[in-house]
Amino acid sequence: MYVVTGATGQLGRLAVESLLAKVPASEVAVAVRSAEKAADLAARGVTVHVVDYDRPESLAGAFAAGDRVLFVSGSEVGRRLPQHRAVVDAAKAAGVALLAYTSIPGSATFGLADEHRATEEMILAAGLPYVFLRNGWYTENYLGDAAGTAERGVVLGSAGEGRVATAPRRDYADAAVAALLGDEVNATYELSGDAAWHLRELAAELAQASGRPVEHQDVAPAEHLAALVGAGLPEGFAGALVDVDAGIARGELAGTPGDLARLIGRPTVPLAESVKAALNS
């Protein structure tokens, strides 16, 4: 069986759809917190396991010997290590054939990387056959409110002259499925978009696609943090985003090794295309 954890989340859902385009539903299982959210998958013949990373006992039976598992990392920063430990322990106990983990680029030194690094070490220590999918930044991280950004006319950041090589989640999901179905084991992929861009370019693409004037404003980290908190983000999450911008300023998300395009067998979706799609959605 091919098992996808976190299968009703933004990345996991896309991965399941990509997987179902390649293998029969009878060979696919998902591990999710809510059976209701996965009801459509069950109706299509996908096996649904209800699990909770915070309850290790719930993972019993989610994996079986020989399964190939796409382990989508948890989203609760600060709680992920015990949650991930539960998944790794369950995978080891079951004897899975592969654990493909969605991690973070090896160049990253900002705070969000810490739990991913520790999880990779955990998987290695468990002796599991692995693939590390070191996902770069998602283009959607900048386009969740593309229309609102265009209306306000400002792209705000604190990354200085840093550039970021993004790709949309669908590209990363397709890459995860390619790795899940592939023959490589104990492999690490550094995944990113084909081209690194600056926030000035995002502002220009938003302006061109929306027909509105949009400018980029680079501010000090403290001002950036205050703006994000003022926009309604929790201070901890806002601080993590500002910390990532500091990493971008250091060049930590600008690498373009080409692993993503090679895995999916096509170029990654460019920024301009993603901007147009976000504004039209």
Describe the structure.
With 281 residues, the chain is α/β, with parallel strands linked by helices. It has a domain at 2-135: NAD(P)-binding Rossmann-like Domain (Rossmann fold). It is 42% helix and 15% strand. The chain contains 11 helices and 9 strands. The chain has helices at residues 10-20, 39-43, 80-94, 113-126, 146-152, 169-181, 199-210, 221-230, 235-249, 259-264, 271-280; strands spanning 2-5, 28-32, 47-50, 68-71, 98-103, 130-135, 154-157, 187-191, 215-218. The strands form 2 sheets. Strands 3-2-1-4-5-6-8 form a 7-stranded parallel beta sheet, sandwiched between helices. Strands 7-9 form a two-stranded parallel ribbon. Helix 1 crosses helix 6 (169-181). The radius of gyration is 19 Å and the shape is globular. The model has no long low-confidence stretch (mean pLDDT 96).
